[in-house]
Amino acid sequence: MDATRRVVTRDQLEGVARAALGAGHRLVSVSRLRGGSKKGVYRLAFDDDSTAIVYIWADEENYWPTARSDADADDDHADPFSPASGLALFEAAHRHLAGLGIRTPRLRLADRSRSYYPADIAVVEDVPGDNLETRLRQDPRGVAATMARLAEALGAMQRHDGPRFGKVALIDRGGGSEGGSCERVVLDRALDDLAEAAARDPRMTRARDGLESTVRRLAAAVRSRSRYGLIHGELGPDHVLVDRHGQPVLVDIEGLMFFDVEWEHAFLRLRFGEHYRWLDRDGLDERRLRFYTLAMHLSLVAGPLRLLDGDFPDRDVMRGIAEHNLREALAFQSADGR
Questions:
Q1: Together in a domain, 94 and 235
Q2: What would the pLDDT profile of 233-288 be if each residue is shown by its tens digit?
Q3: Rama region for 309: left / alpha / beta (φ>0; ψ in -120 to 50; rest)
Q4: Same domain, yes or no, for 110 and 142?
Q5: What is the pTM of this model?
Q6: Which of 109, 125, 141 represents a domain boundary (last residue)?
Q7: What is the pLDDT of the chain when averaged over all its residues?
Q8: 259, 230, 237, 255: which is closest to 90 by C-alpha?
């Protein structure tokens, strides 16, 4: 973490720990976990060798240079792709997933009173062991049962229809998203991402006109739809923990929304690679998938480059993501032009 950022100490989280787990657990240490670009994620270790995780939504924990404070839980989130962070989004997502029987870390405390800490916080179960990304790398055959359960969970989510598209916290309040349709929202976002990427990398500058033409043509081939499934929105194998029973546990759930399920599958294909075969499903709209895949590549160029404007610590990782997806977007255009 950059030296200018505040380091959260054990003393600052003692009240949080006591409120979540009771006075019978004495907090021994606090350690910040890697990951999390929008919120702070810390492990609490206690004198009885038990642990818990605390999420902190505060400006000083947010590495995105242009993002507003996500401590404002009353944002209307009318843009489905507005920053997916904040306690309100987390609580709404947790309720929906729990209602479907989808495993997430058990919630111990959610507090926006600022009585225990000067920011919105949540304390959740610490699921021990490696995440699914590590498990797939080390022993892909050994997680076959976990992948099958993950496919079942995704199927249950995607069959759970929403009345409108948008973040679940917004839909729960009777709201609706701007943009008219999922494909229109994705098109507008893709064009914005393309413009931003072209302003930051000369290769994208040179390819901008061709890519814009391809984006618009692919979007025009997609037919309107009024059925929306529940999607995580950013479900890579690093956002799936595995509990001691081999059950997948979804984390970073704040982006949960009703949307085209193809948006989820475009991301799953990119992140799971050869292991996506476990998660594939019948009935996906291939035209929509193709359009969303290119839009996803553009997002994964513009987003990481924007994040690098700030002091995000894992800079090589972000550069690698941007570079990989830039090459994929250019290759996509080349293949499309043949």
A1: no
A2: 999 999 999 999 999 999 999 999 999 999 999 999 999 999 999 999 999 999 99
A3: alpha
A4: no
A5: 0.91
A6: 125
A7: 90
A8: 255
Q: What is the per-residue pLDDT for 210? A: 95
Dihedral through CA 324, CA 262, CA 246, CA 85, nearest 10? 70
Residue range 101-113: average pLDDT? 97
Contact 126, 105 (CB under 8 A): yes
CATH number of domain containing 149: 3.90.1200.10
Pair 275, 147: CB distance under 8 Å: yes
Query: What's the mean pLDDT in 41-45?
Result: 96
Which tens digits make up the pLDDT trace of 241-252? 999 999 999 999
Which residues contact residue 137 at a Cβ distance below 8 angstroms, ignoring those fewer than 6 apart?
Answer: none
Looking at the structure, tell me whether residues 206 and 74 fall in a common domain. no
Q: How far apart are CA 2 and CA 191, in angstroms?
A: 32
Question: Residue 36 has what pLDDT?
Answer: 64
Number of structural domains the chain divides into: 2
CA dist., res. 75 & res. 94, Å (int): 18
From the number of C-beta atoms within 10 Å of its C-beta (0-12, 13-18, 19+), residue 51 rates as: middle
Nearest-angstrom CA–CA distance, 257 and 159:
13
Distance, in Å, from the CA atom of 126 to the CA atom of 131, rounded to the nearest integer, reads 12
- Taking a C-beta distance cutoff of 8 angstroms, is the pair 311, 5 a contact? yes
Do both 104 and 140 map to the same domain? Answer: no
What is the span of the domain harbouring residue 306? Answer: 132-337
